[in-house]
Amino acid sequence: MNQDQLDLLNFFLNRTFDSKRGQAEILLLQVFSTQENRPLTQHRIDDIESKLLPLVKPEYFAAVKERLDHFPNRNEPLTME
């Protein structure tokens, strides 16, 4: 995992329900691992959002959604940039 991925992981984990952090971490680590072998597609981003967003505290939903929407080129790695 590179530093950008670690930063993104921490960003998400700090905004999820405490009881859902383990689930969010597993999901994101799977995304990072899969991403090494194939680019993210719009379908994959939608799938990630559908699994990740319900784990996010309501007060952080907009910030997390914005971060996910930040990736217009789905062939680029999912990072904080």
Automatic annotation (TrEMBL):
Domain of life: Bacteria
Name of protein: Bacteriocin immunity protein
Organism: Lentilactobacillus parafarraginis
